[in-house]
Amino acid sequence: MVRKMKKFKTLSISEIKEMLSSMKVIPKSIKIFFQVKKSIFIFIIIINIIAGILPVISVNVLGTLINVISTTNLDMSLKILAIYIGISFLLNIVLSIKNFLTTKFQYLLDYELVNKLMNKCANMSLEEFENPDVQDQLKHIQSQIGYRPYSIFTAILTLITSITTILSSIFSIIIWQPSAILFIITPSLAFSIFYLSISKREFQTEENNAKKSRNIWYYEFLLTKDQSFKEVKILNLAKHLIKRNNDLKKTIIKENLYNTKVRLIISIVFDFIDQICMMALMILIILSVNAGKLLIGGAVSLLRIINMVFDSFNSIMNIIYSINQNSLYMYKLINFIHEPKIKHGDKKIYRLEEINDIEINDLSFCYPGTNKKVLKNINLKINKGEKIAFFGRNGSGKSTLIKLLLGYYLVDDSMIKINGISLNDINTDNLYKLIGILFQDYCKYELTLKDNVGFGNIDEIDNEPQILESLEKAAVDFIPPNLEQQLGKWFSDGIQLSGGQWQRVALARCFFKKAQLYILDEPNAALDKMGEKKIMNTFFELTKNNIGIFVSHKIAHVMLADKIIYLDEGRIVAEGTHEQLLKTCPSYKEIYDLEFNIPINSKDVDDEFIKQKEA
């Protein structure tokens, strides 16, 4: 249901002060512009100052030319005409250079800001990134980063040009009639108050619609991407999703049209007031000519100058509106990019050369924004050379424990230690170089086969023999070993893979890294039995002198581990070898019997286990 529009109202004095204070972000914006390309930015400013002065000089020369022509002084007329043409030619050159440089700067600015935004996202913790407010901010910033910062840039340049034009012109107007300034300034000031009001409303509308815009993007993603196409088709969801998408869009369009209508009405009213003031000034000029106080050339110059000043003041009002509206966005962008990472105290950062042991002490954890503990009093020690399995039903906390071991969420210093050092004190970039992992929700990179595997160790991405070896370890034998083969169907010449094939490619990416800790989160989810066996053999081979952790909710996948950590509702309910848990943990024994469909206490249970152990 579309909510009722708020009635438009003008700003109070305090609101005007608040909005003007938001323009303090402009110096920060200029600082960013300097960082993009200082020399070009300074040259553009100089060009805009020249572009503001030359039209005023040109008009004054034109007035002089008209006066000289009326005296029939041909020689002087031709000289002044040459000057006038020269100034006009110079102005055209200046404007052409200005257009070229501003276009070049636009590309550089977009490159710089997108690069800063990507680096910011890359340096976020998972805790920050998964925050819905952060996602709304990111969507809002990302959707407008291509034009709002550039709009501020062009607005600042236009402001420089307009102020230069006014300062260059004001002297001529004051000499003729000082009171004429009031006819120019008064309507412009009133105009600015209303424009600031609509500016604030438009930005608030955009902020309020950030979540809707994210939902619209997601509905469009579901309807246009191959991941969801088959299910949307078979479930006949297209009409339903299109309706949801359109309902949200209609709400946004209605609000935006209301703002546009208000801005149109304000513009028409003040254009009318401008014309009345302009008419009054023209009458004064005509009276001055009739009284012999002005020559025809001076009158023409004044008319042109007053018109330029009117245009410049109106331009400034539009610029203030634009800068205010865009600076609110820019303020959010700058704060987002420069907001410090979540830190856990001012600690010394350790760089690890190897991983000898992992220790977890009294670890309890709630996801940010919730009070429900998903892990409760976890205590665990993992030593080098051990193969550990995290076992439990879905939702028991297995994958959450992996996220905490990777430092994706902060916990107290004493809760997780590697080599006796708190995880919070360890340089994560260095740590991640020692870890090879297959996530449960692994990435399917719509890139080349080489990229898909080489991303596992970006420093060795050109080591093609090692990539081929990793593909063999992961049993990727379903496509020719052409490393330049495009995978997926998003780009041309790509081939689509099945779920199990994508997972094997992801496993090859994991195995490509010469790691000291290998983690497989549900590695057998999409694999056949033959694939499972080869993958697990490779895993055990790689972890002979390293630490291996694999996560599963199936006993068949964990029974060969040195130690099984059985999790249920966030607690460790049992730990030990498969044989020990069969004897000491009734619920584990029950799951085992159900999974293998073997009667309880049957001798076949032990025979089946012995066969798998020997295999």
Automatic annotation (TrEMBL):
Q: Which InterPro entries match?
A: AAA+_ATPase (IPR003593), ABC1_TM_dom (IPR011527), ABC1_TM_sf (IPR036640), ABC_transporter-like_ATP-bd (IPR003439), ABC_transporter-like_CS (IPR017871), P-loop_NTPase (IPR027417), Type_1_exporter (IPR039421)
Q: Name one Pfam family in it.
A: ABC_membrane
Q: Which domain of life is it from?
A: Bacteria
User: Which compartments does it reside in?
Assistant: Cell membrane
What GO CC terms are in its UniProt record? plasma membrane
Locate the ABC transmembrane type-1 domain: which residues?
42-325
Keyword terms, alphabetized: ATP-binding, Membrane, Nucleotide-binding, Plasmid, Transmembrane, Transmembrane helix
Q: How does it sit in the membrane?
A: Multi-pass membrane protein
Tell me which residues make up the ABC transporter domain. 358-594
Q: Where are the transmembrane segments?
A: 40-69, 81-101, 150-174, 180-198, 264-288
* An example molecular function term from Gene Ontology annotations: ATP hydrolysis activity
Instruction: Name the PANTHER family for this protein.
Output: ATP-BINDING CASSETTE SUB-FAMILY B (PTHR24221), HAEMOLYSIN SECRETION ATP-BINDING PROTEIN (PTHR24221:SF646)
What is this protein's record name? SpaT protein
Instruction: Please name the source species.
Output: Clostridium perfringens
Where is the organism placed in the taxonomic lineage, from the top? Bacteria, Bacillati, Bacillota, Clostridia, Eubacteriales
